[in-house]
């Protein structure tokens, strides 16, 4: 499972380090970093749900993490305070924080925290091979690329000149054709095309009923196209118990 994260901390040198830690942990996905708590509260408090985990610094200018926490606690699953001032720990837990990280901490301490608050073991940090992931360049930018793990992609859906990439926590609309995706996936056996507009991950298939495929961890349901029906059901038969 992937846990989305937001960092609110005015110390840029520390947020850079925490961003690097998060990038190395496959169960974490960083959505945004705020260095100004007033901007964070302006942008986030109107939202119904912000992220799975908020890493919130306590000692910040204008408004402290202690003051900010009540506005954010109900908008995330887990609230983790981070600070270099140990005397704030009591106040942090009075606010029912899920954990308290004392700066500076190593990535192993962050792993322990994620395991503690989610009840799941975070896989050890490891290098991905080139076959585990891919990058997609965001149109209209010169240097912004999104990284995707193949193991996290539920489906690719054609949307005119775009594709939608479904993951357990989000859906991304990218300027790219489905035929280009199909070419890039050539030679892989973890995806299968079931409709002219859909390429799905075999690992996320939850249920096949009549001509409908229901995918796990999403709202994706795909009607099997006529020209793909024979090959898809042949795949199912080859894996029937």
UniProtKB/TrEMBL annotation:
Record keywords, A-Z: DNA-binding, Phosphoprotein
Residues annotated as domain Response regulatory: 4-118
Molecular function, one GO term: DNA binding
Coiled-coil intervals, chain numbering: none
4-aspartylphosphate modification, residue list: 57
Gene3D superfamilies attached to this UniProt entry: 3.40.50.2300, LytTr DNA-binding domain (2.40.50.1020)
Cited Pfam families: LytTR (PF04397), Response_reg (PF00072)
Domain HTH LytTR-type span(s) in chain numbering: 136-209
Protein's UniProt name: LytTr DNA-binding region
């Amino acid at each position: 499972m992937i846990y989305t994260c937001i960092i609110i901390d005015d110390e840029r040198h520390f947020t850079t380090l925490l961003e690097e830690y998060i990038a190395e942990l496959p169960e974490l996905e960083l959505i945004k970093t705020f260095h100004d708590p007033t901007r964070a509260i302006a942008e986030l408090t109107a939202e119904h749900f912000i992220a799975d985990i908020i890493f919130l610094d306590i000692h910040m200018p204008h408004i402290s993490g202690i003051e900010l926490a009540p506005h954010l606690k109900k908008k995330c699953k887990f609230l983790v305070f981070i600070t270099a001032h140990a005397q704030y720990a009591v106040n942090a837990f009075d606010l029912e924080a899920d954990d308290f990280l004392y700066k500076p901490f190593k990535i192993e301490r962050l792993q322990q925290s994620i395991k503690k608050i989610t009840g799941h073991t975070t896989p050890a940090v490891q290098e991905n091979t080139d076959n585990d992931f891919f990058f997609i360049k965001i149109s209209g930018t010169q240097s912004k690329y999104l990284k995707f793990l193949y193991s996290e992609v539920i489906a690719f859906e054609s949307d005119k000149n775009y594709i939608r990439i479904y993951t357990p926590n989000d859906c991304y609309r990218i300027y790219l054709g489905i035929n280009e995706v199909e070419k890039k996936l050539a030679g892989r056996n973890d995806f299968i095309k079931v409709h002219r507009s859909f390429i799905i991950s075999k690992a996320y298939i939850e249920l096949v009923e009549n001509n409908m495929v229901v995918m796990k961890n999403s709202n994706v349901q795909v009607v099997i196209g006529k020209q793909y029906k024979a090959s898809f059901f042949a795949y199912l038969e080859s894996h029937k118990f």
